[in-house]
Amino acid sequence: MTTTTQPRVFPGMLCQGIEIFKSESGTKVISSGTVISFHDIPTPIYQTLKESMVHNKEAHAILKEWYPESELKQVEKFSECRFGGLDFTPDIIGNQLQEGEYHDCPFRGKCKGEGIVCKALKYKGNVLTVEDIELIRLLSTSDTNEVIAEKLNISLGQYHKIKKDLYARLGNIQTKQEATLIATELNLIKTTRTD
To answer: Can you name the residues that pair with 18 across neighbouring β-strands?
Structure first.
């Protein structure tokens, strides 16, 4: 029996979905089968993003404070913060935006717009903290409980307590494997698929 790898295709390449992501060279958009700079996005996409930004008054106020002279920069930063992760779920389908997605940001934990401009990461209605995200990522490794506790610089007993609390908030899961599936779903870790 042979196994073949079926590559997953990013939204916007072969479908009407649109994917926005942060790259080393700036914010990019995948649309109509091509990757383009944010500054080159079609007007309807820009308008959809702008309307969402303006509708979120608190986020819009922060963005106007950050970029008082440029609506384009406000919309770009809103899009980067809200949808900056490159994943396989479209950020826009038609004129509908998804709620937002997690991506690594160097300003997490120290940004005025955290949870406002970007969306707080939620799972089953529970907001996940930076500490929760770190624990989920560690649970998605082959590290033992003892090693994870050591990496977190806490006692094994304290580790088991916070892990139990996290598992309850993740829907009463029971295993590291379930945590790994959730981490993949939330774009916290990258996986390779070999179907």
So the answer is: 92
Q: How many residues does the chain have?
A: 195
pTM of the model: 0.74
- Cα distance between residue 193 and residue 195, in whole Å: 6
Tell me which fold the domain 122-185 belongs to: Arc Repressor Mutant, subunit A (1.10.10)
Q: Which of 26 and 103 is assigned the larger pLDDT?
A: 26
Determine the pLDDT at residue 122.
82
* Of the candidate ranges 23-32, 143-152, 184-193, the one whose mean pLDDT is the lowest: 184-193
Classify burial at 58, counting beta carbons within 10 Å of its beta carbon; exposed 0-12, middle 13-18, buried 19 or more: exposed
Q: What is the mean pLDDT of residues 42-69?
A: 95
Number of C-beta neighbours around residue 46 at 10 A: 18
Q: How far apart are CA 192 and CA 195, in angstroms?
A: 10
Would you kindly state where each structural domain of the chain is located, as residue ranges? Answer: 1-120, 122-185
* C-alpha closest to that of 30 among 70, 71, 78, 85: 85
Query: Which among 100, 78, 76 has a CA at the least distance from the CA of 186?
Result: 100
